[in-house]
Amino acid sequence: MPQTTDHPVLHAEGLTKRYGRRAALTDCDLHIPQGRVIGLVGPNGAGKSTLLQLATGLIEPTSGTLRVLGSSPAANAAHLARVGFVAQDTPVYASFSVADHLRMGARLNPSWDPALAQRRIRQVGLDPRQQAGRLSGGQRAQLALTIAAAKRPELLIFDEPAAALDPLARDGFLQSLLEFVTELGASALLSSHLLGDVERVCDHLIVLADSRVELAGEVSELLAAHRRVIAPRGDLDRRPAGIDVIAVEHTHTQSRAVVRLDRPHPDLPWTVEPIGLEELVLGYLTRAAAGEGSR
Asked: Which SMART domains match (predicted)?
């Protein structure tokens, strides 16, 4: 059943988390409406897991504010029930059977949907009697996803859930994720290094680098605002106003750049082409690595 609350999925202002002198997350501002499948991408150490841990209430910010579904993360038992979390490596209890996991989920979650859990277990071919420790990686991921979804949350959070899966198992996991989001009317936040997975399932994007938000927004709008430009080398130095060069590569005769435009169809004297999500993300990560990102 679709959720009816009007609060954004995530709303952060100046969100910062430090460990001593090390900044894990710095001055993050985010506003993400409900009903989105959000891709959270960035290199190791960028702050992705920190943001997810803050969103689930596992840690508290050093400064700034974060609201999840309109409340402080893990504010109370009722709020905990509104969020489902699948941690990295999709942990399950090796000595518990599949049925044991479902019984535990029913005891711990007042809004548990036993019919949904049983149906999904059957659909993915899990034997209720089998110990979780004997399941394949893909089966463990499906079990963890089923447990998170059967509590009927408004937000599902995933921390690199499919990174260790083979392509077929990853495809099955992503398909199940989309089916749960549709059935529950939920939002989802997916942290992943796999840009192909993000491009397949996500309609909103957050790019983190060096603890800061480099880019955030609706995928369709971000792609519409960026282009690949190919120009004679040196020409981009004399570009008109309203064109922000995000990243550029040079050959002996040409410059190839990812640019952000202040209007959809500028009249430019160069080759202008649409770009994909992977090229967009890599452009911003390249800029950040060069020390020219959001500062």
From this structure: AAA (SM00382)
For residues 163 and 95, the model is more confident at 95
pTM: 0.89
Cα–Cα distance for residue pair 149/154, rounded to 1 Å: 9
Contact between 148 and 87 under an 8 Å Cβ cutoff? The reply is: no
- The residue type at 116: L
pLDDT tens for residues 33-65?
A: 899 999 999 998 899 999 999 999 999 999 999
Q: Give the 3-state DSSP-derived string for the chain, with helices as H, strands as E and coil as C.
A: CCCCCCCCCEEEEEEEEEECCEEEEEEEEEEECCCCEEEEECCCCCCHHHHHHHHCCCCCCCEEEEEECCECCCCCHHHHCCEEEECCCCCCCCCCEHHHHHHHHHHHCCCCCHHHHHHHHHHCCCCCCCEHHHCCHHHHHHHHHHHHHHCCCCEEEEECCCCCCCHHHHHHHHHHHHHHHHHHCCEEEEECCCHHHHHHHCCEEEEEECCEEEEEEEHHHHHHHEEEEEEECCHHHHCCCCEEEEEEEECCCEEEEEEEECCCCCCCCCEEECCCHHHHHHHHHHHHHCCCCCC
How confident is the model at residue 3, as a pLDDT?
44
Of 5 and 4, the structure prediction assigns the larger pLDDT to 5
Please name each of the domains of the chain with its CATH number: 10-209 (3.40.50.300), 220-289 (no CATH)
The pLDDT confidence band at residue 86, using thresholds 50, 70 and 90, is confident
Structure-token pair, residue 129: 């009697």
Tally of residues, the chain: 295
What distances in angstroms separate CA 85 from CA 55, 90, 211, one per listed residue? 10, 10, 22
